[in-house]
Amino acid sequence: MTLLARMLGAMLLMAAAPALPQDRGNDQRPLFPAEQEWLSEHNAARAAVGLPPLRWNHGLMRDARDWAEDLASRRAFHHSPDLMRQGQGENLWMGTRERYAPWQMIDGFIAERAAFRPGVFPDVSRTGRWSDVGHYTQIIWPETQEVGCATALNAKHEVLVCRYWPAGNVMGYRLDPGRHLTRR
């Protein structure tokens, strides 16, 4: 078997592997104030639609921090490659450096609720563009159980990355928070 075939096989196995909860070994320290605000805002949005709260995950936070630092250092703003996330969902936010409170960053995601409508993903937006509600739908995705967020700064901007396990926004699933999630 050629090296290319082996590498392709390994990549397919990694992509097909089930998502597993992230590292829980260092989950004992108390949350920093910003982390508590991010978690509280997520859980308030979930409670508003009858969903259980998310748990904070320090492994997800470390992954989020690594990507936020990468984006800030490159002055870039885009999602990480799917293979880097290993079953994690991702929300991104960017604003003027040190001008926003942690809760305001998450409220930017939650404000997308105004365009949300129940439906089979990706047909879940009143505008016809799921990207108009994708941050919000990740937050209220019924199967998502854990979150971790972090920020990084550059000279002008602050970048927030939140990672979720398991990832939401799965094509072909009906998202109706009152009724939870069903396969089409």
Question: What can you tell me about this protein's structure?
Answer:
By secondary structure, the chain is an alpha+beta fold. The protein has helices at residues 3-16, 33-48, 58-74, 82-85, 102-110, 134-139; strands spanning 55-56, 89-96, 119-120, 146-153, 157-165, 173-176, 180-183. Strands 1-4-5-2 form a four-stranded mixed β-sheet. Strand 4 and strand 5 (157-165) form a beta hairpin. The longest helix has 17 residues, at 58-74. The chain starts with a helix and ends with a strand.
Quick structural summary:
With 184 residues, this protein is α+β, with helices and mostly antiparallel strands. Helices cover 36% and strands 20% of the residues.
Classify the secondary structure makeup into a structural class. Answer: alpha+beta
Uncertain segments: 3-20
Tell me how many strands there are: 7
Number of helices: 6
Largest sheet: 4 strands, mixed
Indicate the radius of gyration in whole angstroms: 17 Å
Through-space gap between termini: 39 Å
Strand % is 15-25%
Average pLDDT taken over every residue: 87
Order of SSEs: HHEHHEHEHEEEE
Helix residue percentage: 25-40%
Shape: globular
Name its key features.
alpha+beta; disordered N terminus; globular; 20% strand; 4-stranded mixed β-sheet; 184 residues
